[in-house]
């Protein structure tokens, strides 16, 4: 069974600096619900990365679940309630703060937010706002790739990284090459895993509802990781990282944590 162990508990999530340059461009960070508890360092690294590049970062004050869990479980009434509340709350932030993007660093959540527009396409009261939220949502790797200015750090060449591509990112959002390109541009020696198209077994709530099959998939993915002989595995989805940690001793970190380290942040593993 999956044991919910913290990925990192060294510090509390850093808050967006209230003294940020008010003339800079602004983005909102959807910090997530579970991730705020067991993956705080991912959010902290994301904030540092964005601020280092001159973006004002606002943590959205209403940090409700994106609704993906209820949606996976077929609890559509509960999921729709979350969707509606998020759209209503977040569109206010977008307008009041002049946000140019909503940054997500958990690809499962990002895939869900990008689907809001489709889900409410025939709802006259929410269709426009839902489409706007979906259109503004960017995975952090996607956003950094669109605004790339990471300076290559030659010292990182000695760090061997395997990139694990989450299904929700490569299939759900069609974000495939950008994270690898960002890591290589930052100086890391990166290799993609064999069978990268295969699910690791996490799959939303699948690892809880179908633990035997999820474990088989996790073991298969972990074998690819162990054969790669790397120092660390980078991923864009905390759920994948948590699941795979059960099957290999190779440390897992988020792509944003490695990019943060390469540009002045703390070593994440």
Please characterize this protein's 3D structure.
By secondary structure, the protein is of the alpha/beta class. 45% of the residues lie in helices and 13% in strands. The strands form two sheets. Strands 2-1-3-4 form a four-stranded parallel sheet. Strands 6-5-7-8 form a four-stranded parallel sheet, sandwiched between helices. Helix 13 links the parallel strand 7 (232-235) and strand 8. Helix 2 crosses helix 14 and helix 8 (140-146) packs across helix 10 (178-185). The two termini are 25 Å apart.
Distance between the termini: 25 Å
Shape: globular
* Number of discrete helical segments: 14
* Share of residues in strands: 5-15%
Mean pLDDT: 89
Largest sheet: spatial strand order: 2-1-3-4
Q: Which percent range fits the helix content?
A: 40-55%
Give the total of domains. Answer: 2
Largest sheet: 4 strands, parallel
Low-confidence stretches: 1-13
| Helix and strand composition category | alpha/beta
**Rg from C-alpha positions?**
18 Å
Element pattern in H and E: EHHEHHEHHHEHEHHEHHEHEH
How many strands in all? 8
């Amino acid at each position: 069974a999956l044991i919910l162990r913290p990925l990192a508990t060294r510090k509390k999530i850093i808050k967006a600096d209230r003294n940020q340059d008010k003339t800079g461009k602004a983005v909102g960070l959807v910090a997530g619900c579970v991730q705020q508890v067991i993956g705080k360092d991912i959010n902290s690294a994301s904030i540092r990365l964005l601020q280092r590049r001159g973006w004002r970062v606002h943590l959205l004050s209403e940090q409700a679940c994106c609704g993906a869990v209820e949606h996976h479980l077929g609890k559509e009434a509960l999921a729709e309630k979350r969707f509606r509340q998020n759209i209503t709350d977040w569109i206010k932030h977008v307008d009041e703060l002049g946000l140019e993007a909503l940054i997500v660093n958990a690809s499962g959540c990002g895939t869900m937010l990008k689907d809001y527009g489709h889900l409410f396409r025939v709802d006259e009261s929410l269709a426009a706002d839902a489409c706007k939220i979906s259109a503004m949502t960017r995975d952090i790797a996607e956003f950094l790739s669109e605004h790339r200015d990471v300076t290559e750090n030659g010292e990182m060449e000695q760090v061997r990284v395997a990139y694990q591509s989450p299904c929700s990112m490569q299939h759900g959002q069609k974000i495939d090459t950008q994270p690898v390109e960002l890591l290589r541009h930052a100086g890391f020696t990166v290799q993609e895993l064999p069978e990268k198209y295969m699910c690791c077994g996490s799959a939303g709530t699948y690892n809880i509802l179908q633990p035997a099959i999820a474990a088989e998939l996790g073991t298969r993915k972990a074998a690819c990781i162990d054969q790669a002989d790397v120092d660390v595995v980078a991923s864009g989805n905390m759920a994948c990282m948590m699941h795979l940690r059960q099957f290999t001793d190779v440390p897992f970190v988020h792509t944003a944590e490695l990019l943060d380290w390469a540009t002045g942040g703390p070593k994440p593993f």
